[in-house]
Amino acid sequence: MFCTGLPILEFGYREEEADVAVQSNLAGISKPQTTKGKSSLFRQSLRRLLKNKLAVSGFVVVIFMFALCFIGPLFSPYTDNKINMALMNKAPDMKHWLGTDALGRDILTRVMQAGRISLTVGLASMVLSVFIGALLGAIAGYYRGIADQIIMRIADLLLTVPSLPLLFIFGALLSEWKIPTDYRMYIVMLMLSIVSWPGMARMVRGQMLSLREREFMQAAVVLGLRDRRKLFNHLLPNIIPLLIVMATLNIGGAILSESVLSFFGLGVMPPTPTWGNMIDAANNMIDFKDRPWLWIPPGLSIFATVIAINIFGDGLRDVLDPKQKR
């Protein structure tokens, strides 16, 4: 049942020694993996990723969008967003490269400021959904029984309801309760994480059910390791590649969901700019046909960012999936 080379421990062993024994047994050697081996594995994965030109291109676009949105406004003279009716709906020129909106504000500066909000919402909701999903999925997969039943039934209940209508309901409640604009962004983050964690939890649970039956976990049971050590030292590190890929792909979905909510006036509200509510500014046929600079820049920003994140996430999946390695 167990791999050869499992050390026989005397009574009164320390849990740190048991951890080393489990890791050594899993690796099939008498000593734990060295730092050099880990570094070599990292370099090998990095080389595989760099060979994927499409994934590298996606990563470059993502870095460019983050730099543009978080650093670009520092060099703009129009960050005060003052209303100037003399410049309303002005076409692009040398002073305003992407034109101005209906209140005379610079579109390029607004796009960069909106990107800050949209990217922040995407990142924050991703981190929260990954944390909740990974924690609950690990508990359900490891302990099973009543904990598994309760967590998975809640996840199934949320998965049976389409996420977009559910977000619309939450957004309508925020408007009905007159939540201040300054707090809506944080509530939108929480809303997006609530509808995102069930899928993550199911993926993690499936991995945990598979890993807990492996020989190295059977050895950990025999050695008497505490559940905390089994989870955080041996099980969760084995699902980190899955979490990285899922987290990367979830950012794009969160940005899209936030943009849709803001477009329909149920997410982050003006005057706080987001890519979604900037597109909503062109809500009539005249603006749509005659003033494309109002909606094309934020629309292209959403498109480029989400596509680049998904391409990079696919590249990470190919690199971190053991089945893809030769």
Largest sheet: none
Poorly predicted parts: 1-15, 26-35
Question: Which word captures the global form?
Answer: elongated
Number of helices: 13
Outline the fold blueprint.
Layout: H1 15-27, H2 35-51, H3 53-71, H4 107-143, H5 145-160, H6 163-176, H7 181-211, H8 215-223, H9 227-235, H10 240-263, H11 275-280, H12 285-290, H13 296-320
Describe the structure.
The protein has 326 residues and is an all-alpha fold. The protein has 13 helices and no strands. The two termini are 28 Å apart. The model is unreliable at 1-15 and 26-35 (pLDDT under 50).
Would you kindly provide a brief summary of this structure?
The chain has about 325 residues and is mainly alpha-helical. It has 13 helices and no strands. α3 crosses α4 and α5 crosses α7.
Attribute tags:
326 residues; mainly alpha
